[in-house]
DNA sequence: AAAGTTTTGTTGCTTTTGCAACAGAAAATC
DNA sequence: GATTTTCTGTTGCAAAAGCAACAAAACTTT
């Protein structure tokens, strides 16, 4: 997906880099960061996967976003004016580059190699983010659980160039991601199987239409 | 919202600018552009407002995004691999800067003033986009029509720093935007009025809680 | 390998949402 | 300023989604 961005280059540059950047490791279920206004933190996920979750006043948990390798996150991307808490939670062991910036233009006084590369790659990294958000919006605007599921499956199928693919998260999390009730989603999956739209073996899905 | 980006500066630079940029006007309901892979078009809305809409195979129309002054759009932001048609439709008379780029890094051979400024402002413009998309996702992940409405009203209230504000689009379009059935939304609005959560006079809403 | 925990699969019942249809209000067009 | 079109407000009914609860399977942890 990221043609010219290479996280390995990034890391190499990082080694002898500026003091504004830290590399940290997190265990599963640890909180990587929380979105707080003026904290000015910008993160790149080097390995593992993590979720951006919101806990609302009633304690309901919503997966707002799901991050994998190369994804960028931090409160720059967010209008942190809601009352709700936004946390990034590690779903597996994660390595993260955490960068504290003074201003949104990401200019480093020392003009170190890391920052040069960051400045170069940033538009691209952010564009990837916009693309994935747009896709997410497109899924979420679908009206029925069935359409959301099929939309998502199509997407995975297009990405993997195959009618058979593995879901990148648990069915419980998929329901959260598509913003539907889990049992309703399971019911719909069952119907899709019965109506021969899909074949399902655990988290492996095969599309049977067209 | 855009502190350092100023569309007027942009336009001034544009006047004696490069041949890759065009300024065009569109009447209400005209199609400004459609998202086609490899078209490599990037647009900035100078005035008016427009919607990004999807027509699916059944002819259902969904408002994927709503653009106002300073908003950027184009298929760069989109993974144009779906079968569905994506169109940007003018909702009022619109002026648009249309920029054809060769590569995603937006470098202009002549290095004209327009491009210099574009390169400077692009991260900021795109970040605004990410912020608004994240907000949209947050609204769409809310499970009930009521929560979507209240979430959206809170947002408008926070933006205008007032408990009273005017909806920026018609109720019909609002339903499309929140991805709910219009009549269900009207019903919910009625209940919110009856339960004294809100006061409503046409498109002017007043929040009565907290 | 046993115990504990999380995920999956299922179902009856309730609530919410969506659909269809219509009338009046408002806006746009002629 | 009359006519057509779009938008708003409403409702009965049908369909879909959500809730609650439980058992079985899969996975962690001890």
What is the gist of this entry?
The structure is a homodimer of 210-residue chains. Chain A has 210 residues and is an alpha+beta fold.
Largest interface: A-B, 36 and 36 residues
Count of strand segments of chain A: 11
What's the end-to-end separation of chain A, in Å? Answer: 26 Å
Rounded to the nearest angstrom, the radius of gyration of chain A is 19 Å
SSE order of chain A, one letter for each helix or strand? HEEEEEEEEHHEHHEE
Q: What percentage of amino acids of chain A are in beta strands?
A: 25-35%
The largest sheet of chain A is: 4 strands, antiparallel
Poorly predicted runs of chain A are none
**Total count of helical runs of at least 4 residues of chain A:** 5
Strand arrangement, major sheet of chain A: 1-8-3-6
Shape of chain A: elongated
What is the helix fraction of residues of chain A, given as a range? 25-40%
What oligomeric state best describes the polypeptide chains here?
homodimer
Residue-averaged pLDDT of chain A: 82
Question: How does the helix and strand content of chain A classify structurally?
Answer: alpha+beta
């Amino acid at each position: 997906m990221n043609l010219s961005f290479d996280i390995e280059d990034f890391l190499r540059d990082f080694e002898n880099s500026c003091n504004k950047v830290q590399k940290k490791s997190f265990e599963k279920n640890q909180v990587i960061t929380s979105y707080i206004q003026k904290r000015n933190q910008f993160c790149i996920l080097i390995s593992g996967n993590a979720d951006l979750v919101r806990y609302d006043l009633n304690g309901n948990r919503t997966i707002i976003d799901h991050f994998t390798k190369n994804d960028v996150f931090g409160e720059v991307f967010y209008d942190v004016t809601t009352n709700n808490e936004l946390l990034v939670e590690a779903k597996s062991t994660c390595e993260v580059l955490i960068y504290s910036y003074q201003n949104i233009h990401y200019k480093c006084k020392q003009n170190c190699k890391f920052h040069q590369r960051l400045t170069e790659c940033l538009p691209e990294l952010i564009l990837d983010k916009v693309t994935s958000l747009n896709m997410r919006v497109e899924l979420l605007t679908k009206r029925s659980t069935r359409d959301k599921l099929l939309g998502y499956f199509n997407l995975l199928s297009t990405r993997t160039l195959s009618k058979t693919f593995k879901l990148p998260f648990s069915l419980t999390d998929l329901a959260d991601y598509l913003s539907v009730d889990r049992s309703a989603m399971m019911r719909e999956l069952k119907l899709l199987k019965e109506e021969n739209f899909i074949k399902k073996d655990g988290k492996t899905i095969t599309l049977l239409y067209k």
